What we know:
The protein is an alpha/beta fold. The chain folds into 2 domains: 3-28 and 42-154 and 334-394, D-Maltodextrin-Binding Protein, domain 2; 159-330 and 406-439, D-Maltodextrin-Binding Protein, domain 2 (3-Layer(aba) Sandwich). Helix content is 45%, strand content 12%. The strands form 3 sheets. Strands 1, 2, 3, 6, 10 and 11 form a 6-stranded mixed β-sheet that branches. Strands 8-7-9 form a 3-stranded antiparallel β-sheet. Strands 4-5 form a two-stranded antiparallel sheet. Strand 4 and strand 5 form a beta hairpin. The longest helix has 16 residues, at 410-425. The chain is globular.
Amino acid sequence: MSFTVQRKFTAPLAVLAVAGLALAGCSSDTGGSSSGPGDAGDADGIVTIYGTIQDTEADLLNESWADWEKANKIDIQYEGSKEFEAQVGTRAQGGTAPDIGIFPQPGLLADLASRDYIQPAPEGVAANVEKNWSKDWAGYATTGGTLYGAPLMASVKGFVWYSPAQFKELGVEVPTTYQELLDVTKTIQTKIGKAPWCVGFGSDAATGWVGTDWVEDLVLRQAGPEVYDKWVKHEIPFNDPAIKDAFDSVGDILLNPDYVNAGFGDVKSINTTPFGDPARALGDGSCAMTHQASFYDGFIQDPKNGNSTVGPDADIWAFITPSVEAGGSAVTGGGEIVAAFSNDADTVKVQEYLSSPEWANSRVKLGGVISANKGLDPKSASSPILQQAIKVLQDPKTTFRFDASDLMPGVVGAGSFWTGMVDWINGKSTSEVLDNIEATWPSE
């Protein structure tokens, strides 16, 4: 699994739990080169990092900085855990915080920063962020006007995966507007006599997250970035007409029994279909299209899913879900922010390296991930779709917005929003679903 997906597999986020802590300041050990809330840490040649990245991805992370560790005589000790989001605040309060945290949710970082647990970004990190990331990305590492960290890896969401050969055979072209996507869907359904789309929301305790990605795409493309930002901040309610319109537009596909769920069943089978299974259906021709992020090429090329090839002239390729109007360049995505609890010289040096193009190229060359770092060479990526995703992120015309559910309070973004998508697929009305989600938004 990719780094950006692991966040979706964890239990609901612990932002509210963190908010309920009677937080105290960081320890007062004298630190290194930057000032912060209670200078912390000792330059002892060891820097501890804590995050959600595990298994093979964790091995690749360790490999990405191995040569740099030796050259700089710093031992980076990484710990990955499914309990990161629940435990990082507890560790901070108890005085056992790591030197550095890799945060998959900007909201959690902002919460800890607002309580004086996180060090402001050192000058070298701030310079790297200004040079190598867009203002959108820098904003996700900023709280109260202060930059606290730097982006690390990234993903681009909203890809529609399809077979170029099948599109050619059926005489359809890649759509440039959302209406054209609906038109292509109808044409394929008419010509093949079955549903074109295959969709899976199944993800154990996180079932429903796939649906939130669909809705987020339509809010951004249909209502625009300003409405998207207001939605995330709850400056408009979850049941605002703009959000209902986005649900209804997604419903033109997901709630239409003529359009889903190819290879798996009826509309309701979306909830019981594991999110990885459409990769197999796409590969064997059972369905014509599926909607998933850039990480999905790993599932499509997996031998147990049919071992399909991915590329413009290969078995399977992808296009970004088009905007309402032709020429739109808005995309949603995810990623992580690196921030520090300590500010000793060794920790600062590691932060600067992780925010550099050198580290980004080192990790991306190892495969499976991308970064929004402007200094990243797209050729470093391991697959054509990842190269394409990098170009999208580096394009100055791209309007990027972080996954909305990752920015919302955990009880909503990783709770009622997910379960609301399941209820919606099971037949509950859009209005009722939106009212229910709105009712769970924490009061100020």
